[in-house]
Amino acid sequence: MGIPDDSVGVVETKSFTFAAPPHEMPLESGERLGPITLAYETYGNLDGDRSNAILLLHALSGDAHAAGFHEGEKNPGWWDSMVGPGRAFDTDKYFVISSNVIGGCRGSTGPSSPNPQTGRPYGSDFPIVSIKDMVDAQRHLLDHLGIERLLSVAGGSMGGMQVLQWMVSYPEKIRSAIPISTALKHTPQQIAFNEVGRQAIMADPNWRGGNYYEDSPPARGLAVARMVGHITYMSEASMGEKFGRRLKESKKPVKFSPDFEVEGYLENRGESFVKRFDANSYLYITKAMDYFDAVGARTPSEIFKGLRAKVLVVAFKSDWLYPAHQSQEIVKACKWAGVDATYCEVHSTYGHDAFLLETVEETRLIKHFLTSTFSRRYDGHEKATSNEIRLPGNR
Amino acid sequence: MRLDYRVIADWIRPEASVLDLGCGDGELLSILVKEKGVRANGIEIDEQAIYKCVEKGLSVFHEDIEEGLSGYPDESFDYVVMNGSLQQVKKPDTVFKEALRVGKKLIVGFPNFSHYSSRLQMLFSGKVPVTPSLPYQWYDTPNLHFLSISDFRGYCKLRGLKIEASAFLSKDRRVGFFPNVFAEQGLFLLSK
Question: Which domain holds residue A202?
Answer without folding.
Answer: 191-289
